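So, is this right?
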Amino acid sequence: MKTANFDGGRLLFLVMWLNLVPQTDSCPAKCVCFSEPRPTVACQQQGLFSVPTEIPVRSQRIFLQSNKLTVVKSTSFSSCRNLTVLWLYSNNISYIEAGAFYGLEKLEELDIGDNGNLRTISPTAFKGLTKLHTLHLHRCGLSELPVGVFKGMFSLQYLYLQDNNILLLHDDTFVDLANLTYLYLHNNKIKIVTDNMFRGLINLDRLLLHENRVFYVQPRAFSDLGKLKSLFLFFNNLTVLSGEVMDPLASLQYLRLNGNQWICDCRAKTLWDWFKRFKGSSSELECEVPEFLAGKDLKRLKSDDLEGCVEMPQIQTSLFNAKTQSGKFHSTENPMGETIPRCCLGDNDKSSILSGKSRQITNNPLKEKENMSKTKYKDPERTKNETQNKQNDGPLGTLSNNLDESLENPNPDLESSTPSNKKKKKCSKKPKSDTQCNKSQATALQGPYILFIPMIWISLAMS
């Protein structure tokens, strides 16, 4: 009887000992497994081409970075329900199967960065990761993010999307990320910051948008960013930024806007006013035009320096070339809307080229003759350069490669009525006062140009 009790006690002790001692015998080949501080499987830099199949079920951390993984399957981590940290960065992953992370409800950190062949992400790739607080997607070659990809990720605090090829972000991409504090979007190819791009980011603390191609920020783009403390927009293609855009940034402390080509005329007045109220730290905003203000800091100018408007063909050309390196604009609409004062538009600009509206003809036949002569397109290369140098409805003067067809195929009647030996009127760089611009604008008439051709011929005969 005593022997039976002794054997039973030893068996109980053995069972308890097995439960307490770390199990290392099921550790995958080429990996190292340990229990402290948390059950961990470390398989980094082992030349693995696939995720090991014998990962212990109780693992909480898995390190698979710097291997040669190409696919993350839906079954790769399906048994690891206790997983909190998963590192997959610096592999050759090009495809993540649907449901690859499904069931990992305890996952807090996921790093898929530095997988340059990934390029696309499934809209449901992160479904169910409600406790994830850090997500790395940097250097993945991503050109866009699918609608709803971050849906339900209410705990996310840090999102790394830098060093990709992102051209645009859909409205409400981050609408569920109310707890997001850091958003890294630098070194992408974003051109326009739209009104609803950052909607829902009510607790965002840091927004890095530098080294993109941003040339326009819509008026309500930062309306939800009342707690933002750091905003980096340096080294973009900005020339104008309105004070209305900046007004919601009540908590802003650090602002970097250097490396842009600022137009220091009437269009900069609202931003200049905003800086008078801003108490934080800011980089310099070096003026590009007009010439007499070139190199000066916009913030330090006087109010009188910002009167009138200037034409800046040299900026338009350089920015146009920068924009078209990555492709065409997707629309012929003017993204600037009505944010630019019409007093800052040249006389040859009332045609609203980007908005696709019909040409407007002035009641000055000689002036109209000169304007019409600018529409001749006999030399395609010369035409492209002239088009780039035209002053447009937006502050940049950048044109799309898919402009209104009427520009590429001018009306034959219009071309035949234009004297070929008439020299173009040179653009004046002298600032125009608001009164002069308004007076010029008041002379514009609506109606098809065909009604004014006889008047033009009369003026030509008189000259």
